[in-house]
Amino acid sequence: MTATDRSIELINTAAQAAADKLAHDIIAYDVSDVLSITDAFLLASAPNDRQVKSIVDEIEERLNKELGAKPVRREGDREARWVLLDYVDIVVHVQHSEERVFYALERLWKDCPELDLPADAKATRGKAAEHAKLQAEEDSAELGELR
């Protein structure tokens, strides 16, 4: 069993939408062999709640406008720390960077085949680590100024 053409179309559109909103570390897995409830998972993250919400809104809008897809379930909206969009064929997880590190969903799905994504989405790999490093440098510079 492998992800269907429809699932791949949804994943690619969602991944591009996430990349357009500057999501970090976008990755997709074909989970069709291990889960009967969905074909694929898309994971993406952002360094703050507002950006998580922005990414989720963009994914939802693009999938609806371009592919006529609406989520059957949307969870985690209020806190915008981890939002899940369930499209039956695919499930999208957009997490705050801290949640992404803590829950480490990649570890759970690492044995599943990774799906190829648009170039813009692939280019987001390592962005969370880059952002964290820059943030740490800024924080230590600010501390230095305060002393």
User: Could you tell me the mean pLDDT?
Assistant: 92
Order of helices and strands: HEEHEEEHHHH
How many individual β-strands? 5
Q: Major β-sheet, in short?
A: 5 strands, mixed
Strand order of the largest sheet: 1-2-5-4-3
Helix content: 40-55%
Terminus-to-terminus distance: 60 Å
Oligomer: single chain
Structural class call reads alpha+beta
Q: How big is the Rg?
A: 16 Å
Count of helical stretches: 6
Q: Give the low-confidence spans.
A: none
Shape: elongated
In terms of DSSP E residues, the strand content is: 15-25%
Written account of the structure:
The protein has 147 residues and is of the alpha+beta class. Helix content is 48%, strand content 20%. It contains six helices and five strands, in the order αββαβββαααα. The chain has helices at 5-20, 49-67, 97-103, 105-109, 119-122, 127-146; strands at 24-30, 40-46, 73-75, 82-86, 90-96. The chain has a five-stranded mixed sheet. Strand 3 (73-75) and strand 4 form a beta hairpin. Helix 1 (5-20) packs across helix 2. The radius of gyration is 16 Å and the shape is elongated. It starts with a helix and ends with a helix. The relative contact order is 0.21.
